[in-house]
Design brief:
- By secondary structure, the chain is mainly α.
- The protein folds into two domains: 77 residues, Orthogonal Bundle (Helix Hairpins); 30 residues, no CATH class.
- Helix content is 69%, strand content 0%.
- Helix 1 crosses helix 3 and helix 2 runs antiparallel to helix 3.
- The longest helix has 22 residues.
- The radius of gyration is 18 Å and the shape is flat.
- The N and C termini lie far apart (41 Å).
C-alpha cells in the first residue's frame, strides 16, 4: 500500500463508517493521545519501566493508531503526504548529508 492509497482508504472509511472527520483540533488532540500511548509502550519495552498488569505490549497497534490519525489530519487539511514526505526526505538529505556521518557520537562508542 502506498501513502496515497492509505490516505484514500482512510478517507473512504471515514465516509463509510465514521460519519465525518472529527475537527482538526480534536484530531490533533487525539494524535497527542495516541503518541502518549505509543510512548507508554516504548517506555515499558525499551525503557526502565515494566508493564503493569493488564497492559498490552502492542507497539505495532500504537504506531498504526498514530499513523491513522496523522492521515486523518492530512486528509482534512489537504496535505498530500506522499509529496510532503518526498520534500522532507529531500530537505533532510541536503541539510544532513554529512552531519551524521561526521558525528563522533554516532561513529564511535557513543562518546565524543
Amino acid at each position: 500500500m502506498t501513502i496515497e492509497e492509505a490516505q484514500q482508504q482512510v478517507d473512504q472509511w471515514i465516509k463509510t463508517y465514521g460519519v465525518r472527520y472529527f475537527s482538526e483540533l480534536t484530531n490533533m488532540t487525539v494524535l497527542t493521545e495516541e503518541v502518549g500511548e505509543l510512548a507508554r509502550v516504548m517506555a515499558r519495552r525499551f525503557g526502565d519501566q515494566s508493564f503493569k498488569e493488564g497492559e498490552k505490549d502492542n507497539l505495532d497497534e500504537e504506531m498504526a493508531d498514530v499513523l491513522w490519525v496523522l492521515i486523518c489530519l492530512a486528509n482534512q487539511t489537504g496535505v498530500d503526504l506522499t509529496e510532503a514526505f518526498r520534500k522532507s526526505l529531500e530537505k533532510k538529505t541536503k541539510r544532513d548529508n554529512k552531519r551524521h556521518i561526521n558525528n563522533p557520537k554516532l561513529n564511535n562508542d557513543g562518546r565524543a
